[in-house]
Amino acid sequence: MAGILKLNSDLLAEAENHNLDHIIPGLSKGEYGFIIGSPGTGKGYFCLSLAYELTSSVNVVGLKSHPNPIKVLYWPVEEKRLRVLKRIKKHMRSFSSEVRDSIFEHLSLYDNYEPICAPMMMYGTAAYEMVVQSKNQLIEAAKDVDLLIIDTVREAVGACKEVDNDLEIKLALQEIAEKSDTAILVTHHPTKDITKRKELITSVAGSGLSLTQATSRYALYLEEKGSEYTNLTHTKHNNVEQAYVQRNTKLHWTTDSLVHNPEMYLTEIVTKTFINDEDLKLIDAELENPIKPSSINLSKMKIPVSELKRTKQLKDELSMISDDEKAKYKEFLKQQKNK
User: Fold this and answer.
1) How far is residue 25's CA from residue 218's CA, in Å, rounded to a whole number?
2) For residues 258 and 91, is the Cβ–Cβ distance under 8 A?
3) What digits encode the pLDDT tens for the residues 12-37?
4) Angle at 251 between CA 246 and CA 254, to 5 degrees
5) Phi, psi at residue 165, to the nearest 5°?
6) Where along the chain do its domains lie?
7) Distance in angstroms (rounded) separating the CA atoms of residues 239 and 30
8) pTM score, two decimals?
């Protein structure tokens, strides 16, 4: 019913309470958003890193704004289940048992290859009814989680075409998000012209799906920058607080193919998970001027952080740290002693 709302503290409190529903800054339950990236940019790997971050206490890519784990359902439609499980198993080497337990408790995989959308021309057919059943199954599964990640939307919509069936795809995603009361992130690929750098990256950079993207509440873009790193940028962030807006954030890769923000990853994982007092003594013994673990640049490393505790490899890795970085930690140690 239409009406006039008079501004007061109670009314403003509604907006404050609404922020508590944000699964990640800018995306709330009942809404959907996009992760756009060309083939080979690591969209699936990024989805897993984001899932690890949201289901544990550590920051991996730096998108979450709350410390408590939430429940995530990851649907790798494009990948075979065994391949994804092998990938996750490798990634778990980078986390402590405590973090792994939290991830195992809060992260689940959705194992289904039936589409959630069908062209309206199929309405009334047995195939259409099967699609409706598949969509309802996903809605029921998503009711128990806070975030559903669909990788990729092209594979999830079956016979629907990105241009011709844009409306059907939009309605399907909206229905799943609203009926399950969960937030949804779907991966998609950009237009050919954007991939070839003939067009600028925009909030509707994905191929086709113009209506679906325009109605979405959130969009991230992954852009490969050679073999060293991948850029992460918000292309739609109307409801994202400026502190959480990503602008060409560099994401690096460990040798176990874990995508991470080096600054976040090292500060949260190395200093809080792997590096204990004995490890710090070992570092002190290996270097005349030890370095602060959170200052290590992962791009220089040949091994994952999880192997820092191995003495021989630790010595090899720390020998690659620059003199400037060593000097910074020397100053850090002085400050710690004076506290």
Assistant:
1) 9
2) yes
3) 777 665 555 689 999 999 999 999 99
4) 155
5) -115, 30
6) 23-266, 275-338
7) 14
8) 0.75
